[in-house]
Specification:
Length: about 260
Amino acid sequence: MTTRTIQQLFDLKGKNALVTGGSRGLGLQMAHALGEAGARVMLSSRKAEDLEQAVAELQAAGIDARWIAADCAKEADIRRLADETLERMGPIDILVNNAGAAWGAPAEDHPVEAWDKVMNLNVRGYFILSQHVAKQSMIPRKSGRIINIASIAGLGGNPPEMKTIAYNTSKGAVINFTRALAAEWGPYNINVNAICPGFFPSKMTVATLKAFGEEKLAAHAPLRRLGDDEDLKGLTLLYASDAGKHITGQWLAVDGGVSVVTGG
């Protein structure tokens, strides 16, 4: 075997990637990373207008990008998303399960409907899409990379003022889902790993950042800052490329060190 250079190991030319929740925030950042490394990218989220803007941004950066609107909390939409991606792009080499929801409420008053909404998107949706993509594309070819977006909220309890029990529970489930899937699908040469972001400014976190203050939250991190528009790129590319071909069933926090001081 000829030893490849580091540039060759990280090269994604000829690969196809599907990124859910890809129209903004962390999903769009990860799509940039994959596209900048040479992958063709399919973005998905619920709103066509947001997807059109995101794809225009990626295309302006020289990335081969397209989009499909789908609700990853609905099984029919998930299966349509996978099938249409396969039809339009060919085999899916990289799947990024990123679409997610959060809900804030005291545990004793948390609506069951809200619990189900969070679990359906954050856990059930990941499972159905991973299963469908693997059966249709990755297992037959014995090749694939699945990246699940968890959270440092899934590593332990939040401070008591952050009342997000359904979100925390779902992200803890994503971590063990990642580990179990990696063990089962390793013989098919499918790598399954998770990323646990800390606080990043985004539409999902805007209420939390406003309530607790960006400066206060940043002060809890040893690096004394929140995540930015570049901080997930490196790990995403490592997991997606041959540079990380011997890494599976793992999670890594990208949080400026918050989980170190909170015991996650």
